Amino acid sequence: MTIRVLLADDQALLRSAFRVLVDSEPDMEVVGEASDGAEAVRLTRQERADVVLMDIRMPGTDGLAATRSISEDPSLAHVRVVILTTFEVDDYVVQSLRAGASGFLGKGSEPEELLSAIRIAAGGEALLSPAATKGLIARFLAQGDADDKDPVSSERLAALTVREREVLVQVAGGHSNDEIAERLEVSPLTVKTHVNRAMAKLGARDRAQLVVIAYESGLVRPRVE
Questions:
Q1: pTM for the whole thing?
Q2: Backbone phi and psi for residue 30, each to the nearest 5 degrees, phi listed first
Q3: Distance from CA of residue 56 to its chain's centroid?
Q4: 20 burial class (0-12, 13-18, 19+ CB within 10 angstroms)?
Q5: What one-character DSSP code corresponds to residue 218?
Q6: What are the residues whose beta carbons fall under 8 Å from the beta carbon of 88, sequence distance 6 or more?
Q7: Where in this protein does the record say 4-aspartylphosphate is found (predicted)?
Q8: Quick count: other Cβ atoms within 10 Å of Cβ 89?
Q9: Crossing angle of the two packed helices 188-202 and 207-216, in degrees rounded to 10
Q10: Could you give the C-alpha distances from 156 to 71, 121, 136, 161, 202, in angstroms and in order?
């Protein structure tokens, strides 16, 4: 299947560069370009995009608001948003993940990283793999005020089985299903089943949301560097 990609950035030159790169791949195509968040949401619906590469800072409706609009629309439940940012450290990054983004990527990333990010997001995985990225998310979540936390209660976590909690901790550590299977001495299929059940019980769209929930609920504590 071809991955349908929407580009949302207010810089036409960047969009053009991304289009050339994406369209050069046999398994993906650019189905639209947006210069602001409102247009991104409209085109996501209209063009039935699978993955949206979303800039955070755009005039009018910004990428954060657009991401939230997409994630809250039941008809767009299949859409994955990858946030593009020029900043390594950006509070909007965690806000975007809370709003429903599947991960984020620096605009200075290598072409191969961008293409890999699209495939990872389309496959439902969390684009949180570099250790520095996970550490960044953890720091922001640790700095947030209690009132600013996502109210994922211990009551909802209590719905998880012991094994599902163990798997959630591993997911929060950025480990793949194969890695978790090896660590817990079970099959990758069993891990996938536990991950899917945890997402259903916690109302998470994908693995990225599970990572946020694990930190915000206190199940996983951020490391102090």
A1: 0.73
A2: -85, 125
A3: 14
A4: exposed
A5: T
A6: 106, 132, 136
A7: 55
A8: 9
A9: 60
A10: 21, 26, 26, 11, 6
